[in-house]
Amino acid sequence: MIEEKIIYILDTNILLHEPFAFLSFQEHDVVVPMTVLEELDSIKDRRKDVSRDARVAIRALEDTLAQASPEEVLAGVKLPQTDELHPSGCLSIFNDYTLEQTSGTLSFNENDNRIISTALHIQAVKSSKRVVLVTKDINMRLKAKGAGLAHVEDYRTDQLIDDIRFLTKGYHKFDGDFWEKIKSCESETEGRNTTHFVDRDIAPVTYINEYLIDESESFAGKVTGWDDEKLAILDIGRDRLMSKNAWGIQPKNIYQGMALDALLDPDIDLVILTGPAGCGKTLLALASALEQVIERGLYDKVIVTRSTPEIAESIGFLPGTEEEKMAPWLAAITDSLEVLHKQDENMNSSLNYIMDKANIQFKSVNFMRGRSIQNALVLLDECQNLTASQLKTIITRCGEGTKLVCSGNLAQIDSNYLTAVTSGLTYIVERFKSFPGSTTINLNGVVRSRLASFAEENL
Q1: Cβ-proximal residues to 24 (8 Å cutoff; 6+ apart), any chain
Q2: 417 contact partners, CB below 8 Å, separation of at least 6
Q3: Which of 357, 355, 321, 325 is nearest to 338 (CA)?
Q4: Closest among 419, 421, 427, 422 to 395, alpha carbons compared
Q5: Exposed, middle or buried, 147 (CB in 10 Å: 0-12/13-18/19+)?
Q6: pLDDT tens per residue across span 399-420
């Protein structure tokens, strides 16, 4: 008879992906093989972002096991309970170096094989329980199955969706004419703003600040509230969206119009822009930042940052200050600045003037922890390469009067530890879709250069 309690054996990449992952298995037991601790130890001193996660995981494990005796660590130490109604399991360290290699078993020359052997040993010793190896390594999952392990899983605790096709786009497009679908409508006008109250059934699954468009050339609205019966829609109109202007930039189509409307809205604290390369995410974000800092005076400065994974071999250490070191990573920002000022008589002088006038600061994500950013507009580029915990760190740094713009392309993830569904970008899109101070716009509908479009579809 299989008991309900499960034993989870964690691979190293799980603790690198989420350092506190061992606390996420509720009432079930968690086993960390000794090989995992050795791998964390070898990673913690590298000059990589992942080294920080390794150190956090080691400290978290030490805090949990600090008061336990060696015998208790091997047997299992009770994990902290979240509340009285939900008991927690136990955390133990398994010394896989005590296992003897026999004929037919995997070679102990590789760390992955040692971890798999740990799971196979526990499965044999505790056959009455379900033993599950948890790893994000696809090949390791295949090897474990081939070696005879009955249960192997990916870590899905922080995975909110299974397919990014189901990720909210930030807008809902109706077939045909929107008003032909409306049977009854009440309207209220305040100044130039008109709000329509229609039956909730027209869009039963919707979110605050979600845009509504149709196939006509006139209607565009934004969801501002709802109850059990009615849906409140602010009538924006396509013409108003298409006439949006920021630092001389106007939208080329309705998708960029929705993005620019959200970027220029002072009531929205978080704007998330997703979409393929070349769709205008960075250009729109930078243009709106310059408009609101220099022309409107809504913010004091622009802080630009991004993750720094390399898609080829490292170019080595970079000289200079923090901003000078970040310059190669933030070339997309300077490229966009050049586009915005390419008609100027002396472009280089214009760029220097604007960067000084808007107080544009290039900062590294590595030094965001502990800061409190006040009255600034923060542009976080390429955030598909950040984990959920890294994005949480940055978001919680935003103080009073600060607006955050996150942009990224889920088809271009350079991190070895992330996929489209586990990216921090996907995580915050799902987590913040119901937050009244945020909005998401997917720019997949934007017409890009024919070269970029062909590459996206055929390479």
Answers
A1: 18, 157, 158
A2: 13, 16, 17, 50, 136, 387
A3: 355
A4: 427
A5: middle
A6: 899 999 999 999 888 877 678 8
